[in-house]
Protein 1
Amino acid sequence: MSNVSRETFDKVMVPNYSPLKIIPVKGEGARLWDKEGNEYVDFAGGIAVNALGHCNPELVNALKSQSEKLWHLSNVFTNEPALELAEKLVNATFADKVFFANSGGEANEAAFKLARKYAFDNYGEEKHEIIAFKQAFHGRTLFTVSVGGQPKYSQGFGPLPQGITHLEFNNIEMLEKSISDKTCAVVLEPVQGEGGVIPATQEFMQKVRELCDKYNAIMILDEIQTGMGRTGQLYAYMDYGVEPDLLTSAKALGGGFPIAAMLAKEKFATALNVGSHGSTYGGNALACAVGSKAFDLISNQALLDGVNERRALFEAKLQMINEKYDVFEQVRGKGLLIGAALNQKYLGQARDFMVAALEQNLMILMAGPDVIRFAPSLVVTEAEIEKGMVAFEKAVAKVVNG
Ligand SMILES: *Cc1c(COP(=O)(O)O)cnc(C)c1O
């Protein structure tokens, strides 16, 4: 038995996180257990990562069998799992080429660097401006916090990369006014995740595509949270019928094993020529073997269809709870990325709901201070949804009744 506890965190860890009290030690599907054996229903899914549940047996097998063959080579060599996963991604999407990284932030970093480089090579250094959106989240590297639309994440880290404009999300008029021949890229999330579970409108998505074409700017979709089945499609852009030029994928891509990818159309991919960018671990054989299996399981039509069936169950329960307690302004999002926006009376209290839920043995998330977020496993069972929602109702009652 391990001697560490939550107090150990405060002693030996950098204080950039403030983890909740319990430490889960075991997981299976959409359930977790702590050291004392308490059981929890998990609607957080490692923040939209464990799309196939905890310790999915097929992913465990993929990891085990690859771990006995080959772990890592570096990019001096390529490896079979990486090539297999890249082929699958190319065959299933708009993309012709893939670059592997280890985290979402790194995949975005690659996309933003590619966009700058492509514009520089083809149009000159004047064309370097990136248009991004308020509340957007793109990662925690210096470039990605700068492109992200939440100033709190870049404050104090300056001087920041320049040439980035933040516009109101879903505002077509402002985009038309701001985009120009100097724009090298427009980047957006199909559903802003961290920013409050706010979907891009169909018109907005189409307009971004249209204006990027008009001004020779690269359209980048950050599908790190929306990708790999989360919205009921393999990638959310498929729902909009609008193809990006670059797309970044992470979170569910490895089902819990760290891996990320940037997908690119051929024309743009060539900007990252030999030596221009890289990553020691990117395309690691273990990660790609797990990613490849996760891809097979998630790209299954029955699984994808099940996502919106499950969403309907969540929505029905949330509506029922709201009729009783009047706490939500709106339930929004796509597929199993669900945001319950608190009404006027409960603004700023999302964390209270999260803590109250944990006391009822339920894990949920927030998306900013005003939105409760659910991002469960895509294969969460009806019984687990039922059980979790009973716990959630109790948590809501606790917060409402003080
Ligand atoms: C989580 C997330 C990221 C950052 O991914 P990391 O793996 O934490 O670097 C970037 N963009 C979006 C939309 C995300 O949800």
Note: The chain has a mean pLDDT of 97.
Protein 2
Amino acid sequence: MVPLALLQLSCFFLLASSSAGGSAPDNDQHNRLMLDRFHRWMAFHGRSYPNDDEKLRRFEVYRHNVEYIERTNRDGGLGYQLGENDFTDLTSEEFAARYIGGLIANNDSKVISEGYVADVGKNDPSKLKIPPPPKKVDWRKEHAVTPAKDQGKCGSCWAFAAVATVESAHYIANGKLLNLSEQEILDCDRNDQYGCEGGFPDRALQWIWDYDGIMTEDSYGPYVGEQQACDLSRRAYNYLVTIESVWSIPASEEALKLAVSRQPVAVTIEANVNMQFYNNTSGIYTGPCATLVNHAVVVVGYGRDAVSGVDYWIVKNSWGSKWGHNGFFLMRRGADGPRGLCGIVSTQGVYPLVSVIL
Ligand SMILES: *[C@@H]1O[C@H](CO)[C@@H](O)[C@H](O)[C@H]1NC(C)=O
Ligand SMILES: *[C@@H]1O[C@H](CO)[C@@H](O)[C@H](O)[C@H]1NC(C)=O
Ligand SMILES: *[C@@H]1O[C@H](CO)[C@@H](O)[C@H](O)[C@H]1NC(C)=O
Ligand SMILES: *[C@@H]1O[C@H](CO)[C@@H](O)[C@H](O)[C@H]1NC(C)=O
């Protein structure tokens, strides 16, 4: 049932805000259809609101966003489609405040264990005496990637990106896919990290190396989306996944491709509000975006679209599984100059090496 107050108020909102065309009955009709659509969206995403005022406010935001999505798609300028998803009742400002900005951008990419920096061709990978990487790679298909997780309202993308690289590296080395604990990193890695205010994936990997491993999510406890007291005592009787070393790669798409052909790699991008409206009907994300990196994600593959011929990265995000393609998305590869689309290679990608446990 639609509360009466909601219909009246939103009607008022529509009439008050529509300056161009349309008779009142048309607006009523439009409003009713939009409200039906909102209710279907709420049901699909299991959303409820504490009271009618909040529901009305969210309906207004939803309506505004749906209109933006439809207008943008009609204009066709993006080359891909925007769509509704779990975030369609958030304003751009709310979205940015909650899900973007979990990375403290810096130019300092040498926070890696002494003696372990290097790998895949300091400069030109083609000069390395190794076979060229395959044309396409998707580590999800090798079952080397856990489902996309949800950082919640906490700027902890740096922990999620780092942990995802360890999960995949551990699988590739040992054939065992485990959910490892972002919460442990968020609670315990306080070495120039800022918790829910942001941090660096390379330092998180460094912490795992320094502390001889990371706990599984099952043993440390579930992710709660806020920083709590670090409890390393839980480690005494629990299984740790260890890493042998932390590596960074040169900041180029060639080097990233070569590294990703071996294992998933954490990178930094500029996330912006167009990403808010990326859903599973969207194609390859092509921006627009700049290169002021503010978000950490993991590249888990790459390929080329058979129809359009557009090259892409397959990227694991930490905005839950209802965003994008089950939490993953495709980003254009080899575009927008030497820093890559959204600055994907403006900083060095990082990954851990995990040894085979004998
Ligand atoms: C994606 O967006 C389109 C257009 O808004 C919508 O029709 C579709 O239901 C959305 N898909 C999901 C899974 O939410
Ligand atoms: C990073 O380096 C660029 C170019 O040297 C500079 O313009 C920018 O201000 C630096 N950013 C930070 C956060 O230090
Ligand atoms: C990891 O956690 C997710 C979400 O709870 C679950 O679906 C998945 O089966 C777990 N394990 C692995 C190995 O992905
Ligand atoms: C998107 O997700 C919806 C709901 O899960 C599904 O019905 C639809 O087939 C999906 N579309 C694509 C293009 O994957």
Note: The longest strand covers residues 295-304.
